[in-house]
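User: Mind C-alpha coordinate order:
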Amino acid sequence: MMTDAVSPFRLNGADLIADRAGVAWWPAERTLLVADLHLEKGSRWARRGAMLPPYDSRLTLRNLAACVDRYAPARLIAVGDSFDDPGAENRLPAEDRAALETIAARTELIWIAGNHDPAPPEDIGAMVAEEWVLGPLLFRHEAKPGPVAGEVSGHFHPKASVGVRHKRVRGKCFVTDGRRLILPAFGAYTGGLNVLDPAISGLFPKGFDVHLIGQRIVRRLPKARLTARGSEPSSSI
Protein backbone atom coordinates (compact mmCIF):
# COMPACT_ATOMS: atom_id res chain seq x y z
CA MET A 1 0.00 0.00 0.00
CA MET A 2 1.30 3.44 -0.95
CA THR A 3 1.88 5.93 1.85
CA ASP A 4 3.28 9.45 1.98
CA ALA A 5 6.63 7.89 2.95
CA VAL A 6 7.12 6.84 -0.69
CA SER A 7 6.65 8.63 -4.00
CA PRO A 8 6.18 6.76 -7.33
CA PHE A 9 7.66 7.93 -10.62
CA ARG A 10 8.51 6.58 -14.07
CA LEU A 11 12.04 6.41 -15.46
CA ASN A 12 12.50 5.49 -19.13
CA GLY A 13 9.45 3.24 -18.97
CA ALA A 14 10.30 1.63 -15.61
CA ASP A 15 8.04 2.29 -12.62
CA LEU A 16 10.10 3.13 -9.53
CA ILE A 17 9.37 4.26 -5.98
CA ALA A 18 11.34 6.89 -4.07
CA ASP A 19 11.47 5.80 -0.44
CA ARG A 20 11.92 8.26 2.43
CA ALA A 21 14.83 6.15 3.66
CA GLY A 22 16.82 7.35 0.64
CA VAL A 23 16.56 4.26 -1.58
CA ALA A 24 14.64 3.65 -4.78
CA TRP A 25 12.63 0.47 -5.29
CA TRP A 26 11.98 -1.13 -8.69
CA PRO A 27 9.13 -3.58 -8.05
CA ALA A 28 9.06 -5.23 -11.48
CA GLU A 29 12.70 -6.33 -11.07
CA ARG A 30 12.62 -6.65 -7.26
CA THR A 31 15.67 -4.39 -7.27
CA LEU A 32 16.72 -1.92 -4.58
CA LEU A 33 18.86 1.06 -5.61
CA VAL A 34 21.16 3.01 -3.31
CA ALA A 35 24.00 5.52 -3.71
CA ASP A 36 26.95 6.89 -1.78
CA LEU A 37 27.11 4.85 1.41
CA HIS A 38 30.60 6.26 2.10
CA LEU A 39 31.35 3.53 4.63
CA GLU A 40 34.19 4.38 7.03
CA LYS A 41 34.16 8.08 6.26
CA GLY A 42 34.48 8.73 9.99
CA SER A 43 37.69 6.71 10.29
CA ARG A 44 39.18 8.40 7.21
CA TRP A 45 38.52 11.82 8.69
CA ALA A 46 39.96 10.66 12.01
CA ARG A 47 43.24 10.07 10.22
CA ARG A 48 43.19 13.76 9.34
CA GLY A 49 42.66 14.73 12.95
CA ALA A 50 38.90 15.38 12.72
CA MET A 51 37.50 13.35 15.58
CA LEU A 52 34.04 12.29 14.44
CA PRO A 53 32.05 9.63 16.29
CA PRO A 54 33.23 6.34 14.71
CA TYR A 55 29.77 4.86 14.21
CA ASP A 56 28.78 6.11 10.76
CA SER A 57 29.20 2.73 9.07
CA ARG A 58 27.14 1.01 11.75
CA LEU A 59 24.26 3.46 11.37
CA THR A 60 24.43 3.37 7.57
CA LEU A 61 24.39 -0.43 7.48
CA ARG A 62 21.60 -0.60 10.06
CA ASN A 63 19.49 1.68 7.88
CA LEU A 64 20.33 -0.31 4.76
CA ALA A 65 19.44 -3.59 6.48
CA ALA A 66 16.07 -2.10 7.43
CA CYS A 67 15.42 -1.33 3.75
CA VAL A 68 16.37 -4.89 2.80
CA ASP A 69 13.99 -6.16 5.49
CA ARG A 70 11.18 -4.00 4.13
CA TYR A 71 11.51 -4.86 0.45
CA ALA A 72 13.21 -8.30 0.44
CA PRO A 73 14.95 -7.47 -2.86
CA ALA A 74 16.29 -10.07 -5.24
CA ARG A 75 19.01 -7.58 -6.13
CA LEU A 76 20.71 -4.58 -4.52
CA ILE A 77 22.61 -2.17 -6.78
CA ALA A 78 24.91 0.32 -5.02
CA VAL A 79 25.87 2.97 -7.59
CA GLY A 80 29.32 3.94 -6.34
CA ASP A 81 31.17 5.49 -3.42
CA SER A 82 29.94 2.68 -1.23
CA PHE A 83 33.30 2.88 0.55
CA ASP A 84 34.85 6.24 1.38
CA ASP A 85 38.32 5.32 0.14
CA PRO A 86 40.12 2.27 -1.33
CA GLY A 87 41.13 0.92 2.09
CA ALA A 88 37.83 1.50 3.86
CA GLU A 89 36.71 -2.14 3.82
CA ASN A 90 39.82 -3.07 5.79
CA ARG A 91 38.89 -0.58 8.53
CA LEU A 92 35.36 -1.87 8.99
CA PRO A 93 34.94 -3.14 12.56
CA ALA A 94 34.18 -6.86 12.69
CA GLU A 95 30.56 -6.24 13.70
CA ASP A 96 29.98 -3.89 10.77
CA ARG A 97 31.66 -6.17 8.27
CA ALA A 98 29.45 -9.01 9.50
CA ALA A 99 26.37 -6.81 9.01
CA LEU A 100 27.45 -6.04 5.44
CA GLU A 101 28.12 -9.71 4.72
CA THR A 102 24.67 -10.56 6.05
CA ILE A 103 23.11 -8.11 3.60
CA ALA A 104 25.19 -9.59 0.76
CA ALA A 105 24.06 -13.10 1.71
CA ARG A 106 20.38 -12.10 1.51
CA THR A 107 20.41 -10.59 -1.97
CA GLU A 108 22.47 -10.33 -5.12
CA LEU A 109 24.75 -7.38 -4.41
CA ILE A 110 26.21 -5.35 -7.28
CA TRP A 111 28.90 -2.78 -6.54
CA ILE A 112 29.28 0.02 -9.11
CA ALA A 113 32.73 1.60 -8.94
CA GLY A 114 32.85 5.23 -7.78
CA ASN A 115 35.46 7.95 -7.58
CA HIS A 116 36.06 7.17 -3.89
CA ASP A 117 36.08 3.39 -4.42
CA PRO A 118 37.33 2.64 -7.94
CA ALA A 119 37.82 -1.02 -7.01
CA PRO A 120 35.10 -2.13 -4.56
CA PRO A 121 35.90 -5.35 -2.70
CA GLU A 122 34.85 -8.45 -4.62
CA ASP A 123 34.87 -10.59 -1.50
CA ILE A 124 31.79 -8.75 -0.16
CA GLY A 125 29.16 -9.38 -2.79
CA ALA A 126 29.59 -11.21 -6.07
CA MET A 127 29.64 -8.50 -8.75
CA VAL A 128 31.73 -5.37 -9.36
CA ALA A 129 31.25 -3.23 -12.48
CA GLU A 130 31.98 0.22 -13.91
CA GLU A 131 28.44 0.25 -15.32
CA TRP A 132 25.51 -2.14 -15.23
CA VAL A 133 22.49 -2.44 -17.52
CA LEU A 134 19.21 -3.98 -16.45
CA GLY A 135 16.21 -3.69 -18.77
CA PRO A 136 15.71 -0.02 -19.75
CA LEU A 137 18.03 1.31 -17.02
CA LEU A 138 21.78 1.90 -16.96
CA PHE A 139 23.61 2.26 -13.66
CA ARG A 140 26.81 4.29 -13.22
CA HIS A 141 28.28 6.41 -10.45
CA GLU A 142 28.40 9.84 -12.09
CA ALA A 143 25.92 11.12 -14.66
CA LYS A 144 27.34 11.80 -18.11
CA PRO A 145 26.46 15.09 -19.84
CA GLY A 146 24.29 15.05 -22.94
CA PRO A 147 21.17 13.10 -23.95
CA VAL A 148 20.70 9.93 -21.94
CA ALA A 149 17.93 7.39 -21.48
CA GLY A 150 17.43 5.42 -18.29
CA GLU A 151 20.59 6.50 -16.47
CA VAL A 152 20.68 6.01 -12.69
CA SER A 153 23.56 7.61 -10.79
CA GLY A 154 24.63 9.19 -7.52
CA HIS A 155 27.83 11.19 -6.81
CA PHE A 156 26.31 14.66 -6.33
CA HIS A 157 24.48 14.04 -3.04
CA PRO A 158 21.51 16.16 -4.20
CA LYS A 159 19.61 18.35 -1.75
CA ALA A 160 16.70 20.72 -2.32
CA SER A 161 15.25 23.69 -0.48
CA VAL A 162 11.64 24.97 -0.65
CA GLY A 163 9.55 27.55 1.18
CA VAL A 164 6.54 26.07 2.97
CA ARG A 165 4.18 28.17 5.14
CA HIS A 166 6.64 30.95 5.91
CA LYS A 167 9.48 28.57 6.68
CA ARG A 168 12.16 26.87 4.66
CA VAL A 169 12.40 23.11 4.34
CA ARG A 170 15.47 21.44 2.94
CA GLY A 171 16.69 17.90 2.70
CA LYS A 172 18.08 15.13 0.59
CA CYS A 173 16.19 14.39 -2.60
CA PHE A 174 15.86 12.28 -5.72
CA VAL A 175 16.23 14.24 -8.99
CA THR A 176 14.60 13.08 -12.23
CA ASP A 177 13.23 14.27 -15.54
CA GLY A 178 11.83 10.87 -16.46
CA ARG A 179 14.92 10.07 -18.52
CA ARG A 180 17.66 10.10 -15.89
CA LEU A 181 17.73 9.81 -12.10
CA ILE A 182 20.22 11.03 -9.50
CA LEU A 183 19.83 9.27 -6.17
CA PRO A 184 20.36 10.95 -2.79
CA ALA A 185 23.40 10.04 -0.72
CA PHE A 186 22.57 7.28 1.77
CA GLY A 187 25.58 7.47 4.10
CA ALA A 188 25.28 8.84 7.62
CA TYR A 189 28.11 11.38 7.15
CA THR A 190 27.32 12.67 3.67
CA GLY A 191 26.85 16.36 2.88
CA GLY A 192 24.94 17.63 -0.12
CA LEU A 193 24.77 19.93 -3.13
CA ASN A 194 21.71 22.04 -3.93
CA VAL A 195 19.98 20.77 -7.06
CA LEU A 196 19.97 24.28 -8.55
CA ASP A 197 23.75 24.24 -8.69
CA PRO A 198 24.81 24.08 -12.36
CA ALA A 199 26.64 20.81 -11.72
CA ILE A 200 23.23 19.17 -11.22
CA SER A 201 20.73 21.41 -12.99
CA GLY A 202 22.91 21.48 -16.10
CA LEU A 203 22.25 17.76 -16.54
CA PHE A 204 18.53 18.50 -16.91
CA PRO A 205 18.27 21.26 -19.55
CA LYS A 206 14.50 20.79 -19.93
CA GLY A 207 13.83 20.88 -16.19
CA PHE A 208 13.27 18.26 -13.53
CA ASP A 209 11.27 17.25 -10.49
CA VAL A 210 12.65 16.37 -7.10
CA HIS A 211 11.27 13.91 -4.59
CA LEU A 212 12.19 15.75 -1.39
CA ILE A 213 12.75 13.63 1.71
CA GLY A 214 11.06 15.00 4.81
CA GLN A 215 10.80 13.70 8.34
CA ARG A 216 7.72 11.63 7.53
CA ILE A 217 6.99 12.05 3.82
CA VAL A 218 8.50 12.21 0.36
CA ARG A 219 7.11 15.18 -1.56
CA ARG A 220 7.34 15.61 -5.32
CA LEU A 221 8.15 19.18 -6.37
CA PRO A 222 8.95 20.81 -9.73
CA LYS A 223 12.17 22.75 -10.22
CA ALA A 224 10.19 26.03 -10.28
CA ARG A 225 9.23 25.59 -6.62
CA LEU A 226 12.80 25.30 -5.39
CA THR A 227 15.24 27.88 -4.05
CA ALA A 228 19.00 28.03 -3.98
CA ARG A 229 18.94 29.13 -0.33
CA GLY A 230 20.06 26.61 2.20
CA SER A 231 22.50 24.89 -0.12
CA GLU A 232 25.26 23.00 1.62
CA PRO A 233 28.54 22.26 -0.17
CA SER A 234 29.32 18.56 -0.12
CA SER A 235 32.45 17.30 1.59
CA SER A 236 32.28 13.93 -0.12
CA ILE A 237 32.06 14.49 -3.88
About this structure: DSSP finds five helices and 16 strands in the chain. The radius of gyration is 17 Å. The CA atoms of residues 193 and 233 lie 5 Å apart.
